[in-house]
Fold this sequence. Notes:
Layout: E1 8-9, E2 12-13, H1 14-18, H2 23-48, E3 59-67, E4 80-84, E5 87-89, E6 91-96, E7 102-108, H3 117-128, E8 136-142, E9 146-153, H4 156-162, H5 174-186, E10 196-202, H6 213-222, E11 225-231, H7 247-258, E12 262-264, H8 268-281, E13 283-288, E14 299-305, E15 309-312, E16 316-317
Helix pairs in contact: 3-8, 5-6, 6-7
Amino acid sequence: xxxxxxxxxxxxxxxxYIKPVSQSIARSLFMFVSILLLASxxxxxxxxxxxxxxxxxxxxxxxxxxxxxxxxxxxxxxDITLYDDxxxxxxxxxxxxxxxxxxxxxxxxxxTLRTEADKLREAVREFAYEIYEGDQLLTIGYDEQAExxxxxxxxxxxxxxxxxxxxKKGEPRLLDAFDAVIEQAxxxxxxxxxxxxxxxxxxxxxxxxxxxxDKTLAELQRxxxxxxxxxxxxxxxxxxKRNVPKPSSLIQQIVEGTGGRIFSLxxxxxxxxxxxxxxxxxxxxxxxxxxxxxxxxxxxxxxxxGDGIEVxxxxxxxxx
Length: 320
């Protein structure tokens, strides 16, 4: 390998070392060095001659698309209009995603939650019997800490046996639980699993989390995680807490911000059926090339469906 500048060789420079060599050999060496340097410069020029602009990299959005009348008619990119940061975008493709899902059930088992532990167990159990082939569930209960009730599985009987671990105690640190789920359960899947969801069972109350709401929501959006909720009545009666949205507002903002839906805990079977059907049958992957995207600021997304077409999606592309 030749390097630029003067390199020592046994006390002499490369130049001094070459001098005694005959003229013909010196010319040959000079030609060899020149050719090698030229080849290297061409290679580097080819590698970096035109960096790929961000606008040339396809952005992928996981969205939910349905027809209001329930008709089983194919939906194409012609039925959808997309705006990124206020600018209409050309959609490259819109294809159904029937791949398996990884679903985290995140259950509030804090002491003052306005339901019994048996009701929480019933809700979790319903999902075990509604998931599709290839889907897997991870069940986590949280109070001051998030704890695994049942690791990733599609075995309904194994999940049922683990539900005895759900018990009520402590205070709900919901945002810390979300952060733990993102970092330890969902982020490791981001390279190979496009369909990831969290089912929150609770009223949205957070007490004492170190995690911040805005950062948690942005990370869920950045990771393309869809959040659904089986919601309970707010145990605080709508009391406001500094730096954290009211419980019902927290659930609404996270669910709407990630393209999910809110259900009542009163009918967990209907909720489980609807969520599992939606993830398997109504999910699409939209591809487009963002026009002059900002990488330093959050970009608002707006997706409009044609007549009779309903679309749900994350509401922004967070800054990278």
